[in-house]
UniProtKB/TrEMBL annotation:
<keyword id="KW-1133">Transmembrane helix</keyword>
<dbReference type="Pfam" id="PF07155">
    <property type="entry name" value="ECF-ribofla_trS"/>
</dbReference>
<keyword id="KW-0472">Membrane</keyword>
<feature type="transmembrane region" description="Helical">
    <location>
        <begin position="20"/>
        <end position="43"/>
    </location>
</feature>
<keyword id="KW-0812">Transmembrane</keyword>
<feature type="transmembrane region" description="Helical">
    <location>
        <begin position="156"/>
        <end position="172"/>
    </location>
</feature>
<dbReference type="InterPro" id="IPR009825">
    <property type="entry name" value="ECF_substrate-spec-like"/>
</dbReference>
<feature type="transmembrane region" description="Helical">
    <location>
        <begin position="119"/>
        <end position="144"/>
    </location>
</feature>
<feature type="transmembrane region" description="Helical">
    <location>
        <begin position="92"/>
        <end position="112"/>
    </location>
</feature>
<feature type="transmembrane region" description="Helical">
    <location>
        <begin position="55"/>
        <end position="72"/>
    </location>
</feature>
<protein>
    <submittedName>
        <fullName>ECF transporter S component</fullName>
    </submittedName>
</protein>
<dbReference type="GO" id="GO:0016020">
    <property type="term" value="C:membrane"/>
</dbReference>
Amino acid sequence: MAVNTSDNTSGNASAGVGKALNASTIPLIAIMTAVTTVVTMFVKIPTPTRGYLNLSDAMIFFASYAFGPWVGGIVGGLGPALGDLISGYPQWAIFTFVIDGVQAVIVGAAVRKFKALDIILWSVVAGVWKVFGYFIAGGILSGWGPALGEVPGNSIQAAVGLVIGIALFSAVRKAYPPLVRLGNLGVKAGE
């Protein structure tokens, strides 16, 4: 599989999307979106605002580390949003698409080297964005009291997703060293 590994630091978002979306990445996006949808639906813990906690963050972080901001953003937005639609939470789907998609773009764009401090720092920033985004969405859908009550659960979901996402990415890149080239993480195979 031929993968373009040049780093797009010029700030031209459309060029970055164009490089990310090519004939070799579209099947990858489809498969990762399906896996993320299933993972989102596998563990569902109901919450006071008629939503649920799940393991989507693990796949959002993994996809962003492995495939960069644009593929990660598409997978991170679509997978959990489809999980909402299929699971009977359609009122959350558009919020999920935007909040989780932006979470993935934050991590994928900011993490350029696979260094623990970079990954943890930017993943925490993305997790804070997610908690804030779901607080606003929950406030709109169910009121500010129930939305505030979900902040601890959403924080735990983001933290667990971070740990699982890093562990999964580390294991996969060790088993399949070419993965480091797909995400432009500036590390050599075997590191």
